[in-house]
Amino acid sequence: MPALPALPRPPLPSHLLPGSLRQRIGERLATLRIPDFTVPAPVAKLVSRLPQQPPTHVLTLALNLALDRILPRDTLEPLSGRHLQMRVLDAGLTLDFTLGERGFRRATPAAGARPDLILSATTRDFMALALREEDPDTLFFSRRLRMEGDTDLGLLVKNTLDAVDWDALKAKLLGRHG
């Protein structure tokens, strides 16, 4: 049976747009800010009653995509085997995860066991942190990002986020090279 021909690699979404439109969208994205918002309480109440595994899976998938690309595994070694928890306060989410040999995965907390590190913020603040609209120090000192537990792990997470070259990553995603 003959081998099937290789399929052409699809272009990045940014390459599908004409140059001037791509540039205008890039400029708008550069100045776009996340508005202040809070997830409505009835939605948070409902979400808090739903299984937390699906959103935890999405979080660990995103972290694993970043692992070794923008998050250096050797720097994150102290997180290995540690129980980490992310609380999205206004959305009613509690995401338990850990870093193992094969990357990030959902953690199953032992009854009564406290996570090694708990990061708490609102949906908006986590989004602003991820998009670099806010830095961890600003959120922390304004009490919008809370870290509980092992302060050395919290400092490691903060320093790792600060060390990522977000501008290079953004340029790559927008199709601007060099």
TrEMBL record:
Residues 73-162 form the SCP2 domain. InterPro entries: SCP2_sterol-bd_dom (IPR003033), SCP2_sterol-bd_dom_sf (IPR036527), UbiT (IPR016830). The keyword Ligase does not apply. Keywords: Ubiquinone biosynthesis. It holds the Pfam family SCP2. It comes from the Bacteria. GO terms for biological process: ubiquinone biosynthetic process. Pathway: Cofactor biosynthesis; ubiquinone biosynthesis. HAMAP family: UbiT (MF_02231). Required for O(2)-independent ubiquinone (coenzyme Q) biosynthesis. Likely functions as an accessory factor. Belongs to the UbiT family. This is Ubiquinone biosynthesis accessory factor UbiT. It comes from Thauera aminoaromatica S2. The lineage of its organism: Bacteria, Pseudomonadati, Pseudomonadota, Betaproteobacteria, Rhodocyclales.
